Amino acid sequence: MTAPKPFLGNPQGTIAVLNQYHFVFQKKFGQNFLIDAHVLDKIIRAADITEDDFVVEIGPGIGTMTQYLASAAGHVVAIEIDKALIPILQDTLSGYHNVTILHNDVMKVDLEELAEKMNQGRPIKIVANLPYYITTPIIMGLFEKHVPLESITVMVQKEVADRMQVGPGSKDYGALSLAVQYYAEPYIVANVPANCFMPRPKVGSAVIRLTAHKKPPVEVQDEKLMFSIIRASFNQRRKTLQNGISHVAELGISKEQTVKVLEEMNLSPSIRGEAMTLSQFAEFTNRVLMTR
Fold first, then answer.
1. Total-model pTM
2. In the CATH hierarchy, which fold is given to the domain comprising 223-290?
């Protein structure tokens, strides 16, 4: 059966659905619905959705992007936290027989189990218009839990998208940049103005695609330790690496140890974390482990 054409993705369709259900936007869920068909088409193209794909959409809202996804994908699982949106989704997606609606918090959903049950453990594609206040925990949660992923294509705050793809020396470079680049190849697809949403957000937005690495670009013996070192080095950006690390007792790395390892790497003892690459953090971690 051919899926119906999407009828949302414009202000009129969105307003009609919201009025019909007397829907009230919930600030706590950071709800901003997309009302621009061109942007929606761009997201589907960027995510490279085909009928062979199993897609998980986080925060479908009233089902606007879900309709576009369902028209292109093999199967879509839409995970929505706001129970007031479930009857709306059941209505707007009633013509799409390849959609499963889950009322849940994505942070509590075992996506690995979902992929195993519904996609025979094959990699899934994630697509989302994420609430900006929880963007980083959701994206990092997906990577750190080692969910089988092909890609994550998401609408995020522009500032966060910039942070994900920059390298050393930029003011936006930080722990998020390094974490994302360890797990994926980031690519900003498009910047999206505020008038493409209802209600309008107060910040600029961007669509970013994170293509999961089949194998991390660096070899590190203890991934968890490396990210603890990275976080410590960026907690107070203006501190040198040795000072940042020595202030985190749980790491158990002394200033003397840090200086010794940096010298072995031909790096200045006064280097800051913001000047180090992902491969240097990996090498630093591996060398620290050798001294234990």
1. 0.90
2. Helicase, Ruva Protein; domain 3 (1.10.8)
